[in-house]
Design goal:
It is built from 1 helix and 2 strands. By secondary structure, it is α+β, with helices and mostly antiparallel strands. Strands 1-2 form a two-stranded parallel sheet. Helix 1 links the parallel strand 1 and strand 2.
């Protein structure tokens, strides 16, 4: 199933409780075999190197 996850903050790096919760929910849904699309607010420039 394809799911769209809306988040009030970009979930990386994990530096707060709200971000940890967003990542926990995303990992749980991904572990159940779902395809996730993340939409979040982002302030400033973010450089990522993420391997899922």
């Amino acid at each position: 199933m394809k799911l769209c996850l809306l988040a009030p903050r970009f979930p990386f790096p994990e530096n707060g409780g709200d971000v940890v919760r967003i990542n926990s929910i995303a990992r749980y849904l991904k572990g159940k075999g779902n395809e996730l699309i993340l939409i979040s607010f982002c302030f400033g420039e973010i450089k990522l190197k993420i391997y899922l």
